[in-house]
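Hello, quick one for you while I still have it in my head. A protein chain has come my way and I'm curious about its shape. I'm sending you its amino acid sequence along with the backbone structure tokens. I'd be grateful if you could look everything over and explain what you see. Here's the protein in full, and shout if anything looks odd to you:
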Amino acid sequence: MMKKILLAGATGSMGKKVAHLIAQLPDCELVGVLAPDATTSGEVSASVARFTQLADINLSADVWIDFTTPSAVYANTKFALEHHMHPIIGTSGLSDEQIKQLQEIARKQKMGGIIVPNFGLSAVLLMKFAQEAAQYFPDAEVIEMHHADKLDAPSGTASATAKLIAQSRKKQPQADSCDDNPARGANCAGVPVHAVRLPGYVAHEQVLFGGPGEALTIRQDSFDRSSFMQGVKVALAKIMDLDELIVGLDKIL
């Protein structure tokens, strides 16, 4: 079937690449875009409906893809679910409580969708490997490095990684592994997470595990945003088959 898609954040760095990807897929059609500057942007075809505010959207679509901002993503996802558009959410910043609320809305609406902390396959594998390593090395810290324009810190990927580490631990780490000293990073589920924001970076993460007399480092690097498009393509291929709102690209790989 031809999937009609509404793309939120279409004029951003990721949004532009997703718009280009949609144009290449024979079973997908971009029918609308949402962005503050949507009416002046020349990034999409003139035949595509353009909206600058959520309240102005007056068309239906099968899929809602979101690469907007942490302050907008909850309202956007709620809108998509309540208007029977399957959401693919690439925007980070949703709290655990907000995700639970959205999952409940999805159940009531009988809609499926996916929230993706990271569309890069290398990042998905890093999280999987970190989850495995945490069973043997409970003492861990996460360092994530992103471009200077990234609005949230720590990143959604780093937070998700920390939560997976915490869930996989078979014993507790040293008591002082994550204290109240700001220099020790944010406390994400008992795992210190350090965020770096610098020009020249795109998206990078490393997880450091330490044990008596040894250490393990797992690292992934995304040097170009085009690396995320394979994950977006996978999500688009599977989205209509989902009957609940899930979290993580690994759930559909």
